[in-house]
Amino acid sequence: MIAANAAAPFLKFHRRWRRLGWHAVTGFLFGYVVLHSLSMLIFQWLDPRMAEAMPNHRAAGSLLAAAVHSFQPDMLPMGLVFGLVGAAIATFYGYHRLAVSFQRDRLAQELARNEKLRGELAVQNEELAALELANRRTTQFMAHDFKTALNCVGGFAGQLLAKPGLRDDREVAEALTCIRRQAHRMTGAVLDLLQLARMGEKGKPSVQRLSVTEVLHEAVGDFSLPAHAARIGLGDRHRRCPPLCANRDLLRRVLCNLVSNAIKHNGPNTRVCVDAEVSESGREVLFSCRDDGAGIPPEVLPLLFRKFAPAKEFSHGSSGLGLAFCKAAVEAHWGRIWCENLPQGSQFCFTIPLDKEHSHDQCIYDI
Amino acid sequence: MTNVSTTSKHILVVDDEPDFAALLRSILSDAGYTVSTAYDCEDALSQARTRRPDLITLDIQMPRRSGIHFYHKLKKDDRVRNVPVVVVTGLTRDREMENLIHSLLEPDKLPHPQAYVEKPVEAERFLQVVEETLACPIGQDR
Predict the structure, then answer these.
(1) In sequence order, what are the residues at sequence separation of 6 or more whose Cβ sits closer than 8 angstroms to the Cβ of residue A362?
(2) Are residues A217 and A356 in the same domain?
(3) Residue A362 touches chain B, beta carbons under 8 Å
(4) How distant is the Cα of B126 from the closest Cα of chain A, in angstroms?
(5) What is the pLDDT of residue A363?
(6) For A144, which of B19, B90, B94 is closest by C-beta distance?
(7) A264 FRET partner, CA 20 to 30 A, in A57, A155, B14, B44?
(8) Hey, how many other C-beta atoms are within 10 angstroms of the C-beta on A100?
């Protein structure tokens, strides 16, 4: 059975060339008998004296007589010429069909291979999707565990700092403050990871109607901010903002990240001001986080929102996820985010649309 | 933060993670509450029935859905069903929370937990939620 299968292409190939031979023979016969006879009929019609030269000249003018006459020995050279012309035409036609059939076979093979590859690709895609899902789940579980563990570390450090005996010992207090600060910083990074994984899984965040002022207050008062409200201020334009539809947690994390980023890169004495206003077009709320630090080197600006890709000298031990998270979260709300240098310091801005088709229709209210 | 009314209150912390339970215990003890801890559903139920705490903080995401089972059993037991429950959860207040509420309450039409605290827990915010919950016994509108 295997041998028969292996021989099948050769047999098929052999059969095709044999068919080409039959084409040549048939073409020769057709040329010798039919074309030759027809040519004699035409010559008789052009010159009647030729009919009289035929042995059976009474039957002259019929195709049968011409065919019989074509086999006379003296007509052999002319017959051979017609036969060869017929054979050439038929061979050319047969060769053309042969080429087409070979091409068809090649295409069929290509199609079969493509089909096989498509099947393999589909399987690989499924495996990849499963791996990605598993990866997201793992990230979520790990982030959840880290969050609890870091909460314990930071929480206990805070509890110890509240004890008068320990708080008064300068070295102990400094160490505990450092532990708490680092735990809070790591918690922020873990929350970013968790939210990124969630966004990747769900596609779009669920949104609810929010008061801009409330969200800004929540953000600047968030426990994860290192300088904890000391030099973080709120502008006064946000009070005129209408409610907007967004995901409260994501928006708060975005604002926290921007504030934390400003303090981290400019030092604890930096003054940071967060505010929001309705944009000039009236179709979106424009959030801003302005600092009075040293600004951002121009070569770093294009890299700011890339995941894990902050400039080395500018990263200050950052995970490289914070701003990438901000970009993903803002874009998940159909908004834009950018950064610009000011004469003194820099300003991060992002927009959240007020547009009804993008927000109100999909509002899911808090329970 | 601590006042005369809170010092006599007894709070049961239910969490499968001993360190996290210790943190909540520390926060609550420092605020003047009497605190006991349970690390699994059975122990928590037993303590709730015998000591009848004024409030229970519950990690709803304990292994094998034991947090949810505990809530079901608590709310079906006439002796302790009126103990207010503050759910401490790592879930966010969006779809995940909706699904949780659905799985908690829908099958038996149980009442909602009194409050939710999202991890990471901050001492001040946590104590504020606990105080507010204790100040508003079950059956009263908040």
Answers:
(1) A204, A206, A207, A245
(2) yes
(3) no
(4) 11
(5) 42
(6) B90
(7) A155
(8) 10
Question: Which residues from chain A sit within 8 angstroms of residue B22, using beta carbons?
Answer: 152
Place of tokens 């001492």: B123
> How confident is residue A321, by pLDDT bands cut at 50, 70 and 90?
confident
Cβ A235 vs Cβ A349: under 8 Å:
no
3-state secondary structure of A280: coil
Q: Which residues of A touch B27 (CB under 8 A)?
A: 155, 159
Q: Do B24 and B15 contact (CB within 8 A), yes or no?
A: yes
Boundary of a domain, candidates A126, A149, A182:
A126
Region A34-55: what's the mean pLDDT?
A: 78
Q: Which of A92, A126, A160 is the last residue of a domain?
A: A126
The total domain count for chain A is 2
Q: What is the dihedral of CA B58, B60, B61, B67, to 10 degrees?
A: 90
Tell me: do A115 and A210 sit in the same domain.
Answer: no
| R_g (Cα) of chain B, nearest Å | 14
d(CA A165, CA A169) in angstroms, rounded, equals 7
Cβ pair A150:B26 closer than 8 A = no
Domain-embedded: residue A197: no
- Among B17, B23, B101, beta carbon nearest to A156: B23
**Contacts B17 to A, Cβ<8 Å:** 148
Which chain B residue is nearest to residue A183, measuring alpha carbons? Answer: B120
Summarised one tens digit per residue, pLDDT across range A10-44 is 677 778 788 888 889 999 999 988 888 888 888 87
What residue numbers bound the domain in which A274 lies?
Answer: 205-362
Which chain A residues contact residue B21 at CB under 8 A?
A: none
Q: Residues A242, A356: one domain?
A: yes
Residue A293 in domain: yes
CB contact under 8 A, B101 and A144: no
Residue type at A162?
A: A
Which of B60, B92, B106, B118 should one mutate to test binding to chain A, selecting the residue with the greatest count of A CBs within 10 A? B92
CATH number at residue A307: 3.30.565.10
Does A357 fall in a domain? yes
- In contact, A333 and A247? CB cutoff 8 Å: yes
> Is A349 inside any structural domain?
yes
**d(C-alpha A138, C-alpha B62), whole Å:** 17
Q: Which residues of B touch A148 (CB under 8 A)?
A: 17, 20, 90, 119-120
Cα–Cα distance, B123 to B128 (Å, whole number): 9
Show the domains of chain B with their CATH numbers: 4-135 (3.40.50.2300)
pLDDT per residue as tens digits for the range A172-196: 888 888 888 788 878 877 877 777 7
- Could you give the ipTM of this predicted complex? 0.75
**Nearest C-alpha in B relative to A364:** B94
Strands ordered across the beta sheet of A337-341 = A232-234, A272-278, A284-291, A346-353, A337-341
Residue of A nearest to B92 (CA): A249
Residues of A in contact with B101 (CB under 8 A): 367
